[in-house]
Amino acid sequence: MSEKIPEKEPVVKKNFIHQIVEEELNAGKNDGRVHTRFPPEPNGYLHIGHAKSICLNFGTAQKYNGLTNLRFDDTNPSKEETEYVDSIKEDVHWLGFDWGDREFFASDYFDKLYEFATKLIKEGKAYVDDQDAETISSQKGTPTRPGLESPHRQRSVEENLDLFVRMRDGEFSDGEKVLRAKIDMASPNMHMRDPILYRIMKTPHHRTGDKWCIYPMYDFAHGQCDYWEGITHSICTLEFEVHRPLYNWFIDQLKTDEYRPRQIEFARLNLTYTVMSKRKLLELVKDKHVSGWDDPRMPTVSGLRRRGYTPESIRNFAERIGVTKVDGMIDVALLEHSVREDLNKKAQRVMGVLNPLKVVITNYPEGQVEEMDAINNPENPEAGKRKVPFTREIYIEREDFMEEPPRKFFRLGPGREVRLRYAYFVTCTDVVKDEQGEIVELHCTYDPASRGGNSPDGRKVKGTLHWVSATENVEAEVRLYDRLFLDEDPNGHKDRDFKEFMNPNSLTVLDKCYIEPFVKDSKALDSFQFERLGYFNVDSDSKADKLVFNRTAQLRDNWAKKQGK
RNA sequence: UGACCCAUGGUGUAAUUGGCAACACGUCUGAUUUUGGUUCAGAAGAGUCCAGGUUCGAGCCCUGGUGGGUCAACCA
Predict the structure, then answer these.
(1) pLDDT given at position A12
(2) pLDDT for the residue numbered A162
(3) From the Cβ of A73, is strand B under 7 Å away?
(4) Cα end-to-end span (Å), chain A
(5) Which of A192, A216, A240 is the last residue of a domain?
(6) Which residues 24-53 of chain A have a CB under 7 Å from nucleic chain B?
(7) A191 near A220, Cβ under 8 Å?
(8) Total H helices, total E strands in chain A
């Protein structure tokens, strides 16, 4: 007989970073310690690409009993704001991760960084340069040609020290001087050509106020913060690969024993039909192409949340796409599959009609209201049942009726019989039109013996329609979303702006939709499956007297798929 | 005329570290179904960028190509 089949756990696949970690653990490195960090710059909202990084950083630490710090990379006060800090914290928590009391800011280290810079000056490894940005840039050379040394490169330690103090004390104006590392202007790696360490910026900082008027550059801050926090694995995206020698150079100047953080790079997430850079997302927000960072069409964490995505679905997605160094492009269909999969298990079923067509059941008693039994979630028996009111006048979906139904159309047509879910079999007897020939109403008769949806004589019907009572219902606004861009890779066109590929129909607002009374008291973020239509959640614009729903995702629809061809 | 990185079905990842290429999404059949959902059964689709080499044996190792990406912000 059977050996015990191992429980199917939510396996975390072993990616190349996990392999590195395991090799190091086996070699006894860092005393078996694993400590990662998630280091966002608070200059925008987090997007699904950050979510991948969050899952990687927190997930890796969890897997190896380690810790993860949240550290805001706030070295550029001209772009960073507290609003972003707050949203980032909310998003990381919502995704299901916790950094305990290890919430840090690069700005926490401004004093230590300043000291470290002073040390480098004293060791003759840094100097103050008086040249302007353009000159420094032109002396930098090109990737294929070495750079030129600055005329100030050989200043004495004393002069450098004096100048640096005066930079800090505000004696010079923005851009007048910089502190540079003295490394190698001929290095094949551009980042090693005397990189800038500090620049003058008389801009108040969101945390340090006007204490500083010089601010460290990213390269001069990141690795050192990692070092001071005891980070073992500094995981970042591929574009920082060429920065690694410089990262290591600073650590070399800092380290006092064997410990050193290791920078490992992985490929950032690209998704089809969207853009994934904070700069471009900010542009969409500023130019009002979307309603804000949390517009449900945005690939931001807050947008996905508002759209109805669950943290679980995003974590599963992150797990499924894996972690590699291949710069690829993930099909959004995979993201959509991840929500459907999660919501299918969890979402309360409900009937809602988006595009109403009135149906009068002519042989049904006027004024009668019957409470029909409906299953809350067929995937979860514990979710129980509810009552749905049935009346003589109801609404059905316009697309569920065709006057001249094609082959394989299982729904309603003249003379046809269908099932109204959880209610009765009805047969269409009349089609009522207005002067324009537009169908305004259907007349049907019902079979009282088919109460609940089955006929005692064993009669079968091909179609089952959802419906909502025309008198016992909740009226709602429903927002349907489509991809923001029509092109798979709006970024991938040279000489064309990504905004040229925007989908003009990415948002459709349906004003008069009818939902069964069950949803009446629902709150923002509550998710439902509107049967046969898709997953919908309550939008934050929703009011008690005017519910607003977002369509999170459509249900798979083989019929629609065949029609499309 | 540089440095660094990458290359496996349509897409994304695997392959016990050298042993007859697996999984997920997507696509297509069929079954079940009071959601044209879910579930279930099945199919098609790559011979691993190319050329050499090492080896009994290479997607994994070596060499050389090719293609793609990143780097020349006082951004991160």
Answers:
(1) 62
(2) 98
(3) yes
(4) 50
(5) A216
(6) 39, 41
(7) no
(8) 13, 25
> Looking at the structure, do residues A91 and A240 belong to the same domain, yes or no?
yes
Assess whether A236 and A142 both reside in one domain. no
ipTM of the assembly? 0.96
Indicate whether A450 and A357 sit together in one domain. yes
Q: Does A336 qualify as catalytic in the annotation?
A: no
A411 C-beta less than 7 Å away from strand B: yes
Whether A558 is in a domain gets the answer: no
The distance between the two most distant Cα atoms of chain A, rounded to a whole number of Å, is 102
Are residue A157 and residue A132 in the same domain, yes or no? yes
Query: Which residues of A line the annotated binding site for L-glutamine?
Result: 73, 218
Range of the domain at A187: 122-216
The reply to whether A322 Cβ lies less than 7 angstroms from strand B is yes
d(C-alpha A1, C-alpha A465), whole Å? 47
Chain B footprint positions (protein CB, under 7 Å): 1-8, 10-15, 17, 24-28, 34-39, 68-76
- Assign residue A198 the CATH number of its domain: 3.90.800.10
Output phi, psi for A42, to 5 deg.
Answer: -80, 65
Residue A278 annotated in active site: yes
Evaluate if the CB of A524 falls below 7 Å from strand B.
no
Instruction: State, as a whole number of angstroms, the distance between the CA of A209 and the C1' of B62.
Output: 58
Report the distance separating Cα A19 and Cα A16, nearest Å.
Answer: 5
pTM for the complete prediction?
A: 0.95
Residue A239 lies in a domain: yes
A238 closest CA partner among A140, A314, A327, A160: A327
Residues A190 and A322 in one domain: no
Q: What is the pLDDT of residue A431?
A: 98
Residue A505 lies in a domain: no
Q: For chain A, which ranges sit under pLDDT 50?
A: 1-10
pLDDT score of A494: 84
Q: Domain boundary residue among A444, A466, A488? A: A466
Strand partners, A502: A485
Q: One-letter amino acid identity for A117?
A: A
Q: Are A358 and A462 within one domain?
A: yes
Active site residue A89: no
